[in-house]
Design goal:
Strands 1-2 form a two-stranded antiparallel ribbon. By secondary structure, it is mainly α. It is 63% helix and 5% strand.
Length: 174
């Protein structure tokens, strides 16, 4: 049997243990590290490809402290082939999305665990990262601004307001 190998940080090991506990509680069965990573990958599918920088910058709050041994920072687990392939695909795509030259597998695991954590525990962060209507936070802010300006100046001024907002979008590059 082939094993999937990766080094992870202490914080990622803490998050992995927390998500293992979540999945065990949800399913009522014992979950391995490989199982937790596979489930976290499935839970992370909500993240749009252009939003992984927000996942990178996210710091989970209230992750329970677990007793992590130094050996736990070196993963050697039997991972399902489709999940391993998906992680390798993320590893290939994320450097360009994040403006990095290289992203290690431990970082990919950290990101999918963060995304799974957000899905389970932080609905506000999930809405900021991937709004349900598919609009970016910038689009939502512009739409809100447009509605407020039209309410303030009247609907007959809508063409002027829209033209000004479009110029602003072009100027700031969004």
């Amino acid at each position: 049997m082939d094993f999937f190998n990766a080094r992870i940080s202490y914080a990622t090991a803490q998050l992995l243990q927390a998500m293992m506990d979540v999945y065990q509680e949800e399913r009522g069965i014992s979950i391995t590290k490989a199982g937790a990573i596979a489930l976290a990958y499935k839970d992370a599918k909500w993240v749009p490809m252009d939003a992984w920088d927000k996942i990178r910058d996210y710091e989970p709050a209230d992750v329970p402290e677990a007793d992590i041994k130094p050996a736990a920072l070196k993963l050697k687990i039997p991972l399902e082939k489709p999940v391993e392939d998906a992680l390798l695909q993320l590893k290939a795509e994320l450097p360009t999305r994040l403006g990095a030259s290289y992203v290690k597998m431990g970082v990919i695991i950290s990101y999918i665990l963060k995304a799974a954590y957000i899905k389970h525990f932080d609905e506000d962060a999930k809405r900021r990262i991937a709004p349900a209507n598919g609009q970016s936070p910038t689009d939502i802010a512009f739409a809100k601004c447009q509605a407020e300006l039209q309410a303030l100046f009247g609907i007959d001024q809508a063409p002027y307001i829209n033209a000004s907002l479009n110029r602003l979008r072009k100027t700031i590059g969004v």
